[in-house]
C-alpha cells in the first residue's frame, strides 16, 4: 500500500512539474523558446538555396539564391548569381529591393520569419515579446494544436495572424497571415542539425488559398560564421560578399 502511495506521489509531482512548464500565454511561450534554445542557436547563418516556384502543383521555374543572416533581423539575399545585382536587404525594419545593383525601392517591413524563426531563439524575451506583439500577433491567445504532424502550440488568432511552435523542441513551425496585401502561410517543414545548431533547411510558402507557390531548399549551410555587418548596408549591396 505504501509503495503504491509513494509511486502515486511521484507521478503527481512529476505531473505538477510538467504543468508548471505549460505556457499560460504567448509571452510565456516566447520565454520558454529562448530558455530552451538560445545556447544552441546561431546568431549568424550563411547559406545558398534552391528555389522552386510552383503553379497548379507543378514546378514552373527554379533559381538559386545566396543569403546571409545576422541577429537581430538582418538578412541579405542575392538572386540567381553573385553578379546579377538583383536581390533584397532586410535591415532596421526596412526592406530594400535592388535591380542590377541599383536600389529600386525601400519600405518599412518587419520580416515575420526572421523574428519568429530566428531572433526569438537568440534575443532576450523582454525584447522579443513587444516586438512580436507589435507585428500583430495576439500573445494572449494560446491553445494546443497539431502542425506538420507534430504536437504544437498555436499562438494568436487563426482567422487573422497566428503561429505554431513545436511542443517538444520549442522551435517555430509555421505562421499564417490572412491580413494585409500579402496573405500567406509559411512552414519550416524540415529541421536539420548543422554543427550542433537546429537549422530549418526546407521552407514552404502557400498562398492564402492553401496553394503551394514556392519551396526553398538550403545547402552550403554555415552557422555562427563571421559576418561583416557592412553587407547589410543598403548602399553597398552591389559589392556585398560573404
Structure description:
By secondary structure, the chain is of the alpha+beta class. The protein has helices spanning 2-19, 26-37, 112-117, 125-134; strands at 44-55, 58-70, 74-79, 87-91, 94-99, 102-108, 142-147, 150-156, 161-166, 172-177, 184-194, 197-207, 212-223. It has a 13-stranded antiparallel β-sheet with strand order 6-5-4-3-2-1-13-12-11-10-9-8-7. The chain is globular, with a radius of gyration of 20 Å. The N and C termini lie far apart (67 Å).
Beta-strand percent range: 35-45%
The strand count comes to 13
Distance between the termini: 67 Å
Order of helices and strands: HHEEEEEEHHEEEEEEE
- Helix run count: 4
Layout of helices and strands, plus pairs?
Blueprint: H1 2-19, H2 26-37, E1 44-55, E2 58-70, E3 74-79, E4 87-91, E5 94-99, E6 102-108, H3 112-117, H4 125-134, E7 142-147, E8 150-156, E9 161-166, E10 172-177, E11 184-194, E12 197-207, E13 212-223
Antiparallel strand pairs: 1-2, 1-13, 2-3, 3-4, 4-5, 5-6, 7-8, 8-9, 9-10, 10-11, 11-12, 12-13
